Amino acid sequence: IDVIALQPTATAFGRIKQECGGDVNRIAQEIQKIVDERGKFQDPVTKSGGILIGRIKEIGADLAGSTDAQVGDKIATLVSLSLTPLKINEITSIDVDTEQVFCKASAILFENGIYTKLPKDLGDQLSLALMDVAGAPAQVAVHVKAGDTVVVVGAGKAGLLCLAEAKKRVAPTGKVICMEYSPRQCEIVRSLGIADVVLEADAKKPLEALDIYQNALGDQLADFTVNTVSVPNTELATVLVTKDTGMIYFFSMSTDFAKASLGAEGIKKYVPMLIGNGYYPGHAEIAFDAVRREEKLRDSFTKRYCK
Question: Which member of 22, 73, 109, 307 lies 3.0 to 4.6 Å from 113 by CB, making a disulfide possible if both were Cys?
Answer without folding.
Answer: 109
